[in-house]
Structures are given as C-alpha cells and as structure tokens.
C-alpha cells in the first residue's frame, strides 16, 4: 500500500506492475467500496505489461478521513494528482459508479493528460437525496448495525456472478465502517451534492461505458449505458451475469475492454 499526500490528508493506493514501462491505468472505485474491488483487473493489466494504480476514495479503505469535501469533483483532483505523482505523461482512467464521474471530470479538466476513460456502472446524473433518503443513509450508518447493513447492500448490488474473493472483500467493507470517523466520511460521501454531467463536447479522451446487464441501480441498465455513451461520445459494452461491480464480477470482460482501450489510445498517440 502507498499513500498520496494531498492538502487535507492522504489517499491510499496499490500499485500493480510498477516495474513495467507500459501505459499507466488509474482505477477509481465508487462510494462505500474498497480499492481491492479492482484487484483482479489490476493483476491482469499488469501481466499484460501495464502499470496500474488502484486508489481508495477519500475517507474509504485506508485513505484519511480528514477531508472537507467528498464529492466527485474533489475526487477528480485526487486522481489527477496521483497521475502526476506517478510521472505519467498520458494516462487511461477507469472509474466505477461515483468514480466514473470523477474520471470524466478529470478527462475534461486535463485533456493533455487523460487519453482514455472507462466508465463502469457510471453515475453521471445522480439524483439528489430527498429527506427520506437522507434519513435512511444516516440510519444505515449508525451503530451497532452499520457494518452489517452496508455489507448487505453491497452484497445485493453484486447481482449475477459472485466474484473471486468476495467474502474477503465484504470483510474489508465491514472493517471500513467500524470506526466513527469512517462512518462520518462515508455518510458525507453519500450525501455529497454531486453535479450532473450531461454535456461533454470538450472531451478529448477515448471513452467506453461498461454496464452490467443486471445492475440493480437502474430499471433499464442498457438505456442508462447508452445515454452515458451518448454524453461522452463513446461505445457501450453490456456485461452479462453482472450487477454494479463489473471490475470484480467480470474482470475477464473489463480487462479485455481496458486492454483494447489502451491499444486504441496508444495507436492514436
């Protein structure tokens, strides 16, 4: 594990294939997830000769809980800082859920740096939580049931295939909710006023959208994937036997798509 120092705290990240000189791929999970959800993809891309950095969100995993802001735009600054810390001149980014919004913002802000983005189960138009939802979030993350409740929700979002090492990953999620400071950080992330990204005409990065056919976050996952693809002028890949976490449920598909994306952006360089 490594740490990226930021003005208000540190961001935890893992490196795969750091002894290679291939393309840098930065992976960003979504809220109440742990960076290890990209563990299988990281290993696969490293085996193919690329460098992979997989980070935690602010207040999640092993990142610090000392930040003021926990929204997707703030996360985008962490992603860009990590790319610069690792000395990348051009980088491909993969983001899941809220992380997809963060890498999209990063690509819009730094077209000179971000050459490709993969958006997994992307939330580009989040619905602001109403009073009932806000109360539910607070209740969900209260002791003594916070760890059990959040892990139950996390498990249910894995509709379809059960990932390799899923029990170990759920234990990481349980550990993440056992301290008051992390519960507060996760609550702030859930309640953050994230912006809607429905226009991206200035996006220069090659884009691909990866959506689980069984993703329970949408009534019609294919329709949402096609809408996001239209915003980022990319293509949509629907993944069978998969819910919200394609990177862990179908790492075979995600790795293949990412390797293709890397090949495309390098061909255009």
UniProtKB/TrEMBL annotation:
What is the species listed in this Swiss-Prot or TrEMBL entry?
Nocardiopsis alba
Its domain of life reads: Bacteria
Q: Where is the AB hydrolase-1 domain?
A: 25-255
Supply the InterPro entries for this chain.
Answer: AB_hydrolase_1, AB_hydrolase_fold, Carboxylesterase_BioH, Epox_hydrolase-like
Q: What is this protein called?
A: Alpha/beta hydrolase
Q: Name one GO molecular function term.
A: hydrolase activity
PANTHER family associated with the record: HYDROLASE ALPHA/BETA FOLD FAMILY, PEROXISOMAL MEMBRANE PROTEIN LPX1
Keywords assigned: Hydrolase
Pfam families per record: Abhydrolase_6
The top of its lineage is:
Bacteria, Bacillati, Actinomycetota, Actinomycetes, Streptosporangiales
